[in-house]
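[stage:ingest] chain + small molecule (zinc ion)
[stage:ingest] validated
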Amino acid sequence: MSPNEVYSGGCQCGAVRFRVEGPVKLASICNCRMCQKALGNFMAPFVSFGKPVEWTRGRPTEFRSSQQVRRGFCPNCGTPLTYRWGDHEPSLTIGAFDTPNAIVPTVEFAHDNRHPIFAHYDVLKAEPLGATDEERDILAILKSYQHPDRDTENWLPGQANNG
Ligand SMILES: [Zn+2]
Ligand SMILES: [Zn+2]
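[stage:predict] done
[stage:export] tokens:
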């Protein structure tokens, strides 16, 4: 991806969409307890651009997690979207982008609170999506209500994603 490419993304239901101009300033993961709780996850992957985020549909609702930090999420589906320190431009959750694989973290914060699973990640039994007959049957009839990984002109949260 070229440095000045525009990155887009949004929440799972499509009620909140954003755009931000590259290049990436800092992509990181954080293992601190506040980030774990805010994302309901082992760790939080965030990227900052140091530029204003353009909200192209809806806006996140913010929870003030400390006197300095606000954390934004979709008010409709709850997808965690932002981390904002004071008046700084917000960082965005990498998984919310349309092309998350294009953003690779280079820093790990709160390394001392790393979840024990990461010591065993490479030895987990690795199953590709659709590895079993049962899973293939489910995938064949599944109607996704997740917003597609691209901007859409009109979108009603809860409509089927036909690609
Ligand atoms: Zn949503
Ligand atoms: Zn953190």
